[in-house]
Design brief:
The structure is a homodimer. By secondary structure, chain A is of the alpha+beta class. The first copy, chain A, is built from 18 helices and six strands. Chain A: Its main location: mitochondrion.
Chain lengths: 470, 520
């Protein structure tokens, strides 16, 4: 092999130009940017965001960047990337890709932080931002193709902490205009920051995986710019990036002329409520079953009529929580999402508030719920399905199955619903006119001449900015 | 802790356990603990099975509960030597290029509380960044201590502690024993974690151990010094795990020292976040999907209670290096020096290279120290071949042997061309058992072979106190004036009697007259 894999990555990061972007990639990534901003705004009201903000506040620096939605709160760029990244992933509401990772949260906050911190005279257009963003996404996708296990729901390392850190380093390298060698070194340095264990998913620490990916990727790019050197073949080696995988099998990327974007072939999924993606199948199946079980007033029939509830789901241990004990656990519980949907008819952001999680009516239903793992139901976001069966005391059983939920890449959220989600998320942080302004700016991002227009809109507003935690 | 059986269903017993929280706090104070009963088929119903006290809890218990009275004389003596050696290599490391780069980077951050960069009186950074750059300095030349199972324990812990000591309020007073306790807790946690996998006993292949266990050791030490509650100690370990882990491929590059720097920095950060109430997975050490993610085989054990506590450092000492290169090269250097005695001319120089037919090194199979023609100082520090040839040529090997201009000397390259490695099957990549044999065959057919089983500096043949202090002086001389150097040596020597650690941290400043900020 004349060129190492790592070199081919550096080549792509360094050499791709705005002209390489396709219409579909532009359209898809603009939707990702809008969705990510919205969930980030919403996330600034969470406890975990509050804690990492308190921590990050101790740092100041000459160049600073803004915390989304908080006009007076500025941090050094890598910490702005950190806290904004935590906000984005704080409620498990951000986008999901296939192979599985949350691609946007690792990249976008790093880029907005850098955009703000660069000198006044540096001008970046919307297309510059789109290019750097898509490079950050593309690098993550290409890395995940190096192992079969990446295609399944992860078991050892949380993918955003692995590929996200390198994606962020790639995007930052692009925006900062690093040389070919520096792009390569940035990947190597970033690898030494990558990797967090899955056991911290479904805990309050999980959002830090995305925050740290954004922060450390940025840091890796800065260190590369200062001339720090790592292993130039980091992606080629089993002792390098391969350390994060049991089976690792690399491929040199195509040349710039033959470049194609993974995002062109494979879209992301957007969530309709803040919980693990696998629960979205359950929610739709549960909503469908519920229609058989409602009384005339629309409420669910009394729980004591229900004998049992069976969920046929893939075997994903960390979303198997019969009695979740916190909002983070509830977001990672097939059982909780099923029972809440059966009870309430729908599931949304407030369904995961602490007081909702501990409702006795939900617990009553949870007691009747059990999981089954059909052997044909693999833990893979492209192929999994969820079946919900409710058996009544009188023996009647009602079963509904969901193969593709609305929001999945096979059945994408339409533009109207995507913008609705954004408005609902951003409403506490942005006044209505700014919200519409931001939606329109992102909608026409490829025509934007100066990204400062965009970053200014991220400030929120003095009147409606809130710093209280949830 | 009180346990009540709630119910039994679906082959599982559900308990609720509560433990009282003595001070008002925002934490939950109850949790579900699941136990599974085996079904008839033998399948486990639920994969999260914990013993009555989880392993993670037992670690938190030790971190929180150990007191100065638990320290033994031998642990105090050994850890003071580690502290002195670490300070010395840290001072020396402030002259390296990698230190200069991370300093330039870290300079952009300031904060209200700040800590000092060792040997640089005017250079202050936020505590976690002081820990970072000092940690990088310590590991910058691969000159810091090594333990068995293999890691570099002190560099992850000491800079975190000195940074914290400085940043805490004036009224907070920490004695030398407080520092020794926190330090040894940081070391102990690393050692205990490495006992959870057999692969940790061998020279690592996937993740660089300081980045794995060092991050948690640093979190443990910081937790102790900051006086975190039992729960917070546990959460700090969980949070730290999400920062741990860097691939071995970056060893032998300029990035490697950041593994120690980051361990110190992120461990500190994890402790701070835990103090702010951030929560992670309370069973992080128990789970294969937790800390076990860094290992292929992971098998945990609950730590002994406080009453039965024993220190690993009591049973297993560290090795101190005599020159800044990978530990395995120290066996090679001694064997090569021994062979050289057969090959010298009357003036003490090595016989001409064209008399040498070949040089064979019989070493364990450690790929990342197998570099036939190293290309940089970092590579030279990780090269059996380079260390052997340099020792044969010069008669000794020391700090200057790794400078760039030395690495590229033609006389060395000439010898490197004649050098090859062999990996005897009985020579395992394990710092407790490995050996190195050096064979030089001359053109006239004569062969000279010497073998080293235990080099001077290894835990089986420790550096005596005089040589340890000599190493310190040689390392610190560019940064500390002579009187401060002696002062520091004496302060560390009597650390257990020190009433206020500020005496120690003040001495780390170096001096306005001799401080240097130039890079190598």
């Amino acid at each position: 092999m004349l060129k190492s894999v790592t070199e081919s990555f550096a080549n792509i990061i360094h050499g791709l130009k705005v002209g390489h972007l396709t219409d579909r990639v532009i359209q898809r990534s603009k939707r990702m940017i809008l969705d990510t901003l919205g969930v980030g705004f919403l996330g600034t009201s969470t406890e975990v965001f509050h804690k990492v903000s308190q921590y990050s506040k101790i740092y100041s620096s000459n160049t600073s960047s803004m915390v989304w939605g908080q006009p007076d709160f500025r941090l050094p760029p890598s910490y702005a990337a950190f806290v904004n990244g935590v906000a984005i992933h704080s409620m498990d509401f951000d986008d999901t890709w296939h192979p599985a990772t949350h691609p946007s949260g690792a990249v976008l906050p790093a880029l907005t932080a850098l955009l703000e911190s660069l000198p006044q005279r540096a001008k970046f257009s919307g297309l510059d931002l789109l290019l750097a963003f898509n490079i950050g996404i593309e690098v993550q996708g290409r890395l995940m193709h190096f192992s079969k296990e990446a295609s399944d729901i992860p078991k050892r390392f949380h993918p955003p902490s692995v590929v996200g850190t390198l994606g962020s380093a790639a995007a930052a390298s692009k925006l900062l205009g690093l040389s070919l060698t520096e792009c390569q070194e940035a990947l190597a340095i970033a690898a030494s920051f990558a990797g967090a264990p899955m056991a911290n998913a479904a805990t309050q620490t999980k959002p830090l995986h995305i925050g740290n990916a954004a922060r450390h990727g940025t840091e890796a790019a800065f260190l590369a710019m200062l001339g720090l050197q790592g292993n130039k073949h980091i992606l080629d080696l089993a002792t390098g990036f391969g350390a994060f995988y049991t089976n690792y099998s690399t491929k040199v990327l195509p040349s710039l002329d033959s470049h194609s974007w993974l995002l062109d072939e494979q879209d992301v999924a957007f969530k309709r409520f803040p919980a693990h993606l696998a629960t979205h199948w359950v929610a739709e199946a549960a909503a469908a079953v519920r229609r058989h079980l409602v009384l005339s007033d629309g409420a669910l029939l009394p729980a004591d009529h229900i004998e049992n509830i069976v969920l046929r789901v893939p075997d994903v241990q960390y979303v198997n929580r019969p009695f979740p004990d916190s909002e983070h656990e509830a977001r990672h519980s097939f059982q909780y999402v099923a029972c809440t949907t059966l009870l309430d008819g729908d599931i949304a952001v407030p369904s995961f508030f602490k007081d909702q999680v501990s409702r006795p009516q939900v617990t009553e239903l949870l007691r009747k719920t059990k999981l089954e793992h059909p052997s044909d139901n693999l833990p893979n976001f492209n192929t999994l399905y969820c079946e919900v069966s409710v058996t009544l005391k009188n023996g009647a059983t009602f079963t509904e199955c969901c193969n593709t939920f609305y929001g999945h890449w096979r059945n994408p959220l339409n533009q109207e619903d995507l913008e609705k989600k954004f408005r609902a998320n951003a409403t506490k942080v942005l006044p209505p006119n700014k919200m519409e302004n931001l939606i329109n700016t992102v909608k026409k991002l490829e025509d934007l001449e100066d990204c400062r227009v965009l970053t200014t809109l991220l400030k929120g507003s003095e009147e409606t900015s809130k710093t209280s935690s949830m």
